[in-house]
Design goal:
alpha+beta, Rossmann fold, Tumour Suppressor Smad4, 2 domains, seven-stranded antiparallel β-sheet, six-stranded antiparallel β-sheet
């Protein structure tokens, strides 16, 4: 199990890590990682010790970093991975039906480990994002959801500035964005509200090609890709990826009023309606930054900075452990 001792849930419950260590003694191990740089060595050590299930005790960003470590170690096919609940964003856990916290999940995994069995798992579609950084170095990450620019990328920048996380923080960003947009529309004196909305709804200047066809728009109000449909707080996005085989891709013009008027559709899991937006199923999207602005993509909630171009393709499925009940027990 990969655990960040600096996470809020561990700081608030100082005995939690010790309890996990005691419970896993003899059947598993807990690796403490206080920074992203420590995740790859921890994963490599667990693989050397014969780990068959890697539990990422965090949200989707923590799972994203574990997947990247497995990719770098060329070990993605060797183990199952599993997120736990209680992260800032948990759409992967929700997709596979994981609702329990780490302690309860460990209890469900232990019987499988004692019997030398792998727990039940699901294959989730993934996407691969590759690109070129400003300094020319290559970039490559695997994940499930990408916000390369536009409202999605700006949203996460605002979301992580909030003092809390989860649905309440998401709704707070929406509320502040709507309030600021109303101030802009009514030509209210320049204020923090207006500045907030201008940042949130500012498009990304980029050239976009989807499955070989270049889009006419270069001001991208949305620049997103999803490997499967996800739940993000009150919103359900990427409905075109409910069926496997292609990603849900979004690019093109999307104004602030387009975003706000589509909030009811986003809560119902419907596609966005906007005249300048291209929203489709696809297998490849390329993005090239134009002008002075760089691409600062967000992948599974993790922020990256300083890319000049990127490509997103459908990746190989990821095997996610999702134990429904302890091994050896049957419903009567």
């Amino acid at each position: 199990m990969i655990v960040n001792p600096r996470a809020k849930k561990n700081r608030r419950r100082p005995g939690r890590i010790a309890r996990l260590c005691r419970r896993l003694e003899g059947v598993g191990a807990v690796a403490l990682t206080s920074s992203v740089a420590e995740i790859r060595p921890a994963v490599a050590q667990m693989l050397r010790e014969g780990a068959r299930v890697l539990v990422s005790d965090g949200g989707d960003g923590a799972l994203h970093q574990v997947l990247h470590a497995l990719d770098e170690l060329d070990a993605t096919d060797d183990v199952l991975v599993m997120p736990t609940g209680g992260g800032t964003i948990d759409f992967v856990a929700q997709k596979v039906g994981i609702r329990r916290r780490a302690e309860a999940l460990v209890e469900r995994l232990i019987p499988y480990a004692l019997q030398g069995q792998l727990p039940p798992h699901r294959d989730l579609p993934s996407l691969v994002v590759s690109g070129v950084r400003v300094d020319g170095r290559p970039f490559r990450r695997r994940g499930f959801a990408l916000a390369a620019g536009g409202i999605g990328q700006r949203f996460f920048e605002a979301y992580y500035r909030e003092p809390e996380s989860g649905t309440r923080a998401i709704l707070r960003v929406v509320k502040r964005g709507a309030s600021g947009q109303l101030a802009r529309a009514t030509h209210a004196p320049f204020s923090e509200r207006r500045e907030y909305a201008e940042r949130l709804f500012r498009p990304t200047h980029a050239r976009v090609t989807i499955d070989g066809e270049e889009l006419p728009a270069t001001q991208q109000g949305a620049l997103h890709a999803g490997a499967f449909d996800i739940v993000l707080g009150p919103f359900r996005v990427f409905p075109f990826a409910r069926e496997p085989g292609a990603m849900h891709l979004q690019a093109g013009e999307l104004s602030a009023w387009d975003v706000l008027s589509n909030i009811p559709r986003l809560t119902m899991g419907s596609a966005i309606r906007a005249d300048g937006l291209t929203e489709t199923r696809g297998r490849h999207m390329s993005v090239e930054a134009l002008g002075d602005e760089n691409l600062d993509p967000v992948i599974d909630g993790e922020l990256y900075f300083g890319l000049r171009s990127l490509e997103v393709r459908l990746g190989e499925p990821v095997r996610i452990a999702c134990p429904e009940r302890p091994a050896g027990r049957r419903r009567s």
